[in-house]
Design a protein that fits this description.
NAD(P)-bd_dom (chains A, B), alpha/beta, 11 strands, 9-stranded mixed β-sheet, 5 helices, NAD(P)H-binding protein (chains A, B), NAD(P)-bd_dom_sf (chains A, B), 209 residues, homodimer, two-stranded parallel sheet, Rossmann fold, globular
């Protein structure tokens, strides 16, 4: 499957693209800058230049699945939260619909289920992610939403706790590498319009779906 | 009709509340601060304290119509654009639905129809307003959306150009006082789920609806 990875230069994005490259799937890494593209191409990865704040519809040509793991990051203002985390994601979903994408995988986050419970700087971000997730759920595009817990740079354990959302959230941490591995399992399975939470745990990644 | 005015301390909000008070309708001015409430109460207006960033569901008790004219203003950051212009509005719509409100009037703005056409600081605001308007359109709450042109502090002319959106937008200015007068006409008519644009023009306000 041709998989467009939006946010391929992010920490999870890089790990995920590396795993995709070694699989039967065919990653297309969307990045914003020429130098990011060059580094990926040197590593044998197909790339496409695309900026979420501009027209990036060309990136969807011939694509069968999309993984959205872009984020404005902690060091930019709330304007970028709107432009990237919310609107970049929602535009990606609209483009996925236009291009009849078979599986849209959204990397979301814990806490997104209830932004009003949170005070402080995180809250606008959680609102933006909530709106993007809701847009996907209502879009008609086959999807999986993945809400990992607090991300760490620990080595992946190869085992996790992936559970479907039923109104309760169990908080926890999870290494980015395990998130990338779970994304591989998700992209290898049929989209069934599910909303998952992910924390560390004891289930082997190969058995979570 | 009991009309909850959200953003009653704003420039349009104040003018509109004054007009409502002189009509057969019964304004309830929602404001954030005690001193704002006191000034309004001294002027004979019923008030309710409510903060769009917190729980303000109490403000909807016994209310039949809602006019949302709140805004975070030009002097705050994009975090407030999310918290007030987008999420405050969307929460108001959800509460209106819960309370079976008969008419929700949203004061929106010109340019909201296509935020991606705009560069710079206005764009996050236009995105946020677009999402709020779309939420209202999809809510099932009977509504009117009003998108005035560039607001001026000129005296009202008593005549305007109010037109329904059919995909084309005619840009222009409009005095805030005329916006408040048009809101009176809207609140005096049945909600018919319409999206209007408003600029200066020659149609007497009393004849626009």
């Amino acid at each position: 499957m041709k998989v467009l990875v939006i946010g391929a230069n992010g920490q999870i994005g890089k790990m995920f693209v590396d795993k995709l490259k070694e699989s039967e799937h065919d990653p297309i890494a969307m990045v914003r800058k020429e130098e990011q593209a060059k580094a990926l191409e040197d590593n044998g990865v197909k790339t496409v230049l695309g900026d979420l704040e501009k027209d990036f519809s060309h990136a969807f040509e011939g694509v069968e699945a999309v993984v959205f793991t872009a984020g404005s990051g902690a060091h930019t203002g709330a304007d970028k939260t709107i432009l990237i985390d919310q609107e970049g994601a929602m535009e990606s979903i609209d483009l996925a619909k236009k291009h009849a994408i078979r599986h849209f995988v959204m990397v979301s986050g814990m806490g997104v289920e209830n932004p009003r419970a949170v005070e402080g700087k995180m809250r606008p971000y959680l609102h933006a992610k909530f709106r993007a997730d809701a847009h996907l759920e209502q879009s008609g595009v086959p999807y999986t939403i993945l809400r990992p817990g607090l991300l760490t740079n620990d080595d992946g354990k190869g085992s996790v706790n992936l559970y479907e959302y039923k109104g309760d959230v169990q908080y926890g941490e999870v290494p980015r590498e395990d998130v990338a591995s779970v994304l591989m399992e998700i992209i290898g399975s049929k989209a069934e319009n599910r909303l998952y939470y992910l924390i560390e745990g004891d289930t082997p990644v190969a058995e979570v779906i």
